[in-house]
Fold this protein.
Amino acid sequence: MQENKTIEQLEPTKVFHFFHEICNIPHGSRNLQQISDYLVNFAKERGLWVRQDENLNVIIKKPASKGAEKAPTVILQGHMDMVAVKDRDCAKDMEKEGIEPYIEGDWLKAKGTSLGGDDGIAVAYALAVLEEDTLIHPAIEAVFTTDEEIGLLGATALDTSDLEGKMMLNMDSEDEGIFTVSCAGGGCAICHLPVVFEEGTGEKLKLTLTGLSGGHSGVEIHKGRQNSNVAMGRLLQAMSGAEGVRLLSLNGGTKDNVIANETVAELLVSKQGKKQAMDLLQQEYAALKEETAVTDPGIQLMASEEGEQTVAVLSRESAKAVVLLLNMLPNGVICMSPDIPNMVQTSLNLGVLRTGEKEVSLTYSVRSSKESQKHNLVTRLRLLTEFVGGTVEVEGEYPGWDFKQDSRLLEIMKEAYREQYGSEPVVEGIHAGLECGVFASKIEGLDAVSFGPQMHNVHSIQEELCISSVERTYCLVKTTLEKLSKLS
Ligand SMILES: [Zn+2]
């Protein structure tokens, strides 16, 4: 039992000693000078090779243990920044003060703040390995990156030319027993459609489609939930069958990587066409509601009538182009992985729809673990958008990490896992970005596995790290290193 122990007394003591030290240093993203310097001093005090770059990334190298000099160098990797969040009542200044971890049963938590187990535990593991002198291991390159939580910034900026390792243990996963071997690359594709406004008169109608389930476009895109922007396009297409329906504006969604769950359309309808327009709308909405009963049970359509008005409306041609894009551009899951069961390989999400003074823009989060499919998807967006007179720009691209069929590291880690746990680990890919993708794009032929001890609720004040899982996972790291040291 771990009851009545201090953190420094928890096993493995070296790992928890370093984890405790890290807790004492504030290390939220963009506040990393102190922790980065701490890592540099750690290396200097032990006479280890170290390099700190201008982005505060730190690389520390340790030679192979005796007899393992011929084994291939191994990279141990994690990010030094954490998501620093606190409870409303917590008086702590997280920029300046450390956090206060405490033990509750088999769990480590922090008083009033996030714990930073993500990814402080990787830093602690690497420091413990660097410090222990009884371990059998190949040459080690410990790579501590910065600002992972705000867009993989440190890893992206890192110059990897002084790294020799082609095998990498990324210790930034939160489920014990799961090895992650693939992640999505992505980017944000913005379709700009120039539009023309003209004067129109009619009864103004505001349609609000709301209450959809929404969710994260990486983690939940396969759940078949409706995207309110796309669904609104469908409703507008149905209404276009009536006479005198004019479009003023369309706005929906908040972020490219969030499945849009509310969209507002402003319209004008003519006196003669109104009844038909409303009938068509009701018919199509009834069908939509029925189709989404399971995925989006909260869906709601509100129509408010705002009286006779003369206002700027989109030209017929502009409105037609917008509705065409909403109906015809791809959205959602494009294909599943043929290698990894139940993993989405390629998808996109129309997260944000905006009407400006001169254009309507459609912002998509595009993801794929295959770079070629990601590019093909952007091409599909471009083809149709350009066909109706628009342009597509891509920003914030990050690389994917494709499953490596012949991974030696995965075989060794599976073997180590089997010996220790007496069962098979789950091997999976995730449809979101990981630093492994960035490293895979920089290191030719990189063989990597991402794993880690059990954590819950990372990035929140409920974050907790399983103490016994930290010990089991450290054991797995040590066995893996020992097995790798026998390779040549
Ligand atoms: Zn992390």
User: Anything to note?
Assistant: The first helix runs from residue 13 to 23. Residues 191 and 228 are 17 Å apart (CA to CA).
